[in-house]
Amino acid sequence: MKFQRYIQKHQNQITLASAILIALGFAGKYLLNSTVVYDWAFILASIIAAVPIMIHAYQSLRVKVISIELLVSIAVVGAFIIGEYNESAIVTFLFLFGSYLEQRTLSKTRESIKSLTQMAPETAVILHEDGTQEEVDIDDVDEGDHIMVKTGASVPVDGKVVSGSGYLDESVITGESKAVAKTTGDSVFSGSILGNGTLTVEATKVGEDTTFGKIIELVEDAQDAKSPAESFIDKFAQYYTPAVLIIATLVYIFTRDFPTAITVLVLGCPGALVIGAPVSNVAGIGNGAKRGILLKGGAVMDDFAKVDTFVFDKTGTLTLGNTAVSAVKNYADDSNEALALVARAERLSDHPLGKAITDYATHEKVSFEQLDVADNDTVKGQGLTATIDDHHVLVGNLKMMNANNIALTDTQKADLTDVQHTGSSVVMVAVDGALKLILGVSDTIRPGIKAQLQALRDHGAKHLVMLTGDNKITAQYVAEQIGLDEVHAELLPEEKVEYIKKFKDQGRTVAFVGDGINDSPAIATAQIGIAMGSGTDVAIETSDVVLMQSSFEALVHAYSLSKKTVINTKENIAIAIGVVIFLLIGLILGFIYMASGMFVHEASILVVIFNAMRLISYGKMPTQAQQAATQKTSAHLI
Description:
disordered C terminus, 20 strands
């Protein structure tokens, strides 16, 4: 048992040693003209490379499985008997090298469960009835306890706010980019971060029952349920290996020619077959890596090629995830003056929309920092008022305008309706008693995404769906702008999972594209999970495909590349099987012998390798800037 573990642990070193010995053997023959060096180098290479193969063959036989490893093992023994050490060495090396290539593509392990649990709150501050506070382990919190949450802290439970107010970042749960105002009576989720203020929360769900706890559970369940697809070669081996053994036995029975029977085994060894699929996958994966696309293995490539339904999160995926001014309706003679006044006013506020407005003013090169503020006041639920450079400024919603008797013209009312229908947050600005600006603040749709979604359709996608935690109006607006087939909004993570399960039950092959922690259960549940590289580590770890630059161009390339790679793999398998059939038939009919058979056998290996190499140049090469960004992101991921 210890020996088996040692061999398995050092299989890559064994493969390298075999390659060195094979090279030494050829050098001995062609440079030193030494048959002794040639023979012994290949004998040693055969022995050390055959050991791990024979161990796998033995383990398969113990569970009553006749594997390709068994065929290779018998062929090696037979090659030794008839003195074909070079063939046995090359076959065993190629077999181990093919296994090494396949394992390399699966080397990035997933640690999403660990990442999630590390992000979960570990302690909570309980507020007792006498007003004292006690920090306890999260497992000691019971339903009904009152929990104190201060600025910058993570909410440790699901519950309701019983006192206090503040802005919560709930992107960990809903994926929504904008901070949400919370006050008495509002619900809060475990894992969300309090940006400002102080809240007292009554716990309604604790521990594994919280929404954040359910996210962890869903990821775990989905990963447990997801088993690697059995490769065609493994299925083929169930019939191929016994068939070759039977043919070799029949040859010996009818001819009593042991060398010919062994030759059947030697030529029947699937050298091109065992390397054909891995080398195609590696070439395809390498192509993607140069373009900032991480594809986690050949099985992923095969499943991705079958995808017909793409499901997208909205925030950070279809949109950039950056709140910005998206609409400006101006009614002032000097629009820059009005923008400067509102930007200066927003400097006085901690409202999340304020930064978007000040950033917009800065981008428009409007100077506002030097403006003098005489007084200011925040009106709860409406906005703020301020006196800036002797101008009376109102910044807020329609309630504030109505409360201050700011009348809207028909044009302004129509503009307000238009901005509201985009799902944007509306900020209205009145100066000295007259409405001067209506600003829409929203997440920005990715540039060029509509064309990229159409490209997905051109490559075979049949259904494009949005599942988001954002509000229905915003989600519907985005879907209409970019041309999605289906949209479902205001969803929690477990509801996204239910939709994906429903699509799968309908017979669809589903890929989910997202970037947030809240997306990880959906990413894990879909046949193919795709994470934007700018997203969280857990989404990246859980996924099957990572788009390191968060680029939809990369998504389209990955989708088309997977289809091209699968076709290339099938071509290699067909070439390998065709060559083996040709060799066996030729051997039986008498026009193929050991020498010519070995030549064709080795040539077929080169053919499948060269065929796979065509994948390396598939598609457009990335620019130097893209390569630099990829290298930077790759270093972060690794």
